[in-house]
Amino acid sequence: MKRYCADRGYDDLGFSRKMREFFEDEYEAVIESKAPRSSLYRLGRQVEYSACRELRAAGFFALRSPASKSPLDVVAVRPGVVLFVQCKRALDLQVSEWNALFDLADKCGATAVLAGRERERGLTYFVLTDRKDGSKRPQPMRRATVAELAGIKARSA
Predict the structure, then answer these.
(1) Which of 75, 85, 95, 97 is nearest to 125 (CA)?
(2) Is there a single domain that holds both residue 117 and residue 141?
(3) Is 95 in the same domain as 129?
(4) How far apart are CA 13 and CA 139, in angstroms?
(5) Do 81 and 153 form a contact (C-beta atoms < 8 A)?
(6) Parent domain of 13
(7) What is the pLDDT at residue 103?
(8) Phi then psi for 74, rounded to 5 degrees?
(9) 28 with 54, same domain?
């Protein structure tokens, strides 16, 4: 990109901003394709893209929240259903992250969901059913399919 901008006399920072503004997902995908294949950030972002695609296919309006440092990576909305999704490649969510996601979803009347890969292919979804206390007890969550997520009714905050 720097070479392209230099050859044409464009400001590379301004060019980058405009490309991001008009072609957000496409630009991010191109930039990502230039990153090293083994980048952990890239592998995690692939989970976010997969979750968005699957949720959109199920009739949701899904938006990524890239590099936001917020408790959620994807917000998915359809009539009567709001999902706050945290994507983790290995489905490993720390206690503080878990509770922040669950509390935010509870406060907003949304459903907290953890998405990730148990195996190489396909995503697995879990609905968080309660706060995590850090003990060795089973995680307060239940496995769900995308179809089941689509059927969840929104709670009032």
Answers:
(1) 85
(2) yes
(3) yes
(4) 45
(5) yes
(6) 1-34
(7) 95
(8) -135, 135
(9) no
**What are the beta bridge partners of residue 126?**
114, 143
Residues 11 and 81 in one domain: no
Same domain, 136 and 69: yes
**β-strands 74-78, 141-144 pairing:** unpaired
Q: pTM for the full model?
A: 0.72
Query: In terms of domains, do 83 and 126 share one?
Result: yes
Which amino acid is it at 125?
Y
**3-state DSSP call for residue 9?**
coil
Task: Answer yes or no: do 30 and 44 share one domain.
Answer: no
Which tokens go with 15? 């060019």
The per-residue pLDDT for 60 is: 94
What is the block-wise mean pLDDT of the chain (157 residues), using blocks of 10 residues? Answer: 85 84 76 62 78 92 82 92 91 90 94 87 90 86 90 63
